[in-house]
Design a protein that fits this description.
heterodimer; A: 0% helix; globular; B: 115 residues; mainly beta; seven-stranded mixed β-sheet
């Protein structure tokens, strides 16, 4: 079954607006929640990550909000720019086991000028 | 660039062909991964190698055969593929130390088309 559920599948935001992507998980053993960004023709690249004992992490215009009780986390992109147009994947990680990173299905973000 | 290179970038092959995908990482990592990326699906982990030893085979059909001769190189040998195997194949690497395993570095992928 899908370990991490992501929505929406696609998102169109005006330049300067806020982009919000949501993810949910079931396995409480997950111990790290990274977000990856993928541009066309490139592999995914780590953008930002959060531990489950923190409710929010901010790096520049990118913020992860984490709700441990609801088992949900989200990525907020403030002041969205056309250069942010990419596919974003949430993921959840386990320290143990060989299969240690579980990805969502991805959100294609388009920021229009 | 991420420090992970993949060749070829594009590959078209018939169902009876045999081909190989190559991945090389220049990051000093000791874990390497093969993923399959298909549209509207999560990245599917195929194989994991830690210190050159295969530690995961995620129920991948035998027509995909991995090889890891050393901790910097990873191959995926392909034979008798099916059209549904057409996808982007991504290689990644990471440290294999607990908390850092979530930080994977991906190559640009090989776009495979099976005709």
């Amino acid at each position: 079954q899908q370990q991490v559920k992501q929505s929406p599948q696609s998102l169109i935001v005006q330049k300067g607006g806020i982009s919000i992507i949501n993810c949910a998980y079931e396995n409480t053993a997950f111990d790290y929640f990274p977000w990856y960004q993928q541009f066309p023709g490139k592999g995914p690249a780590l953008l930002i990550a959060i531990r489950p004992d923190v409710s929010e992490k901010k790096e520049g215009r990118f913020t992860i909000s984490f709700n441990k009780s609801a088992k949900q986390f989200s990525l907020h992109i403030m002041d969205s720019q056309p250069g942010d147009s990419a596919t974003y994947f949430c993921a959840a990680s386990l320290q143990t086991g060989a299969n240690n990173l579980f990805f969502g299905t991805g959100t294609r973000l388009t920021v229009i000028p | 660039e991420t420090g992970v290179t993949q060749t070829p970038r594009h590959l078209v092959m018939g169902m009876t062909n045999k081909k190989s995908l190559k991945c090389e990482q220049h990051l000093g990592h000791n874990a390497m991964y093969w993923y399959k990326q298909s549209a509207k699906k999560p990245l599917e982990l195929m194989f994991v190698y830690n210190f050159k030893e295969q530690t995961e085979n995620n129920s991948v059909p035998s027509r995909f055969s991995p090889e890891c001769p050393n901790s910097s190189h990873l191959f995926l040998h392909l034979h008798t593929l099916q059209p549904e195997d057409s996808a982007l194949y991504l290689c990644a690497s990471s440290q294999d130390k607990g908390i850092w395993r979530y930080e994977q570095y991906f190559g640009p992928g090989t776009r495979l088309t099976v005709t």
